[in-house]
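Deliverable D4.2, example record:
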Amino acid sequence: MSQSPTLVSGLEPPYYTAVFTSVRPDHPEGYGETLERMHARVQDVPGFLGYESARTPGGIGITVAYFRDLESLHAWRDDAEHRAAKQYGREHWYERYSVHIGRVEDSYHHER
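Output generated by the structure prediction step:
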């Protein structure tokens, strides 16, 4: 039996989201290793609250990262290794992407 996906819930607003939407091939060379490294690295950013990610078979991906405040989100944005990975991604992996930053004022969840 497979385990249910985990969703980020129970966060006390206000907090911030970085929504990253992208188009890229399904298995670009070196992507998985870099992704693992970035997932491990963001865990060390004070104020990082979690993330959720989904990808369609056609190459569209959406990742939502949650941060306590703008300072922690900016710390991740400005992280040198993260910046290098973003630059490499622009040059080699992503056909296109968008980033949307938002402040969450209200949040709720349901679990059956």
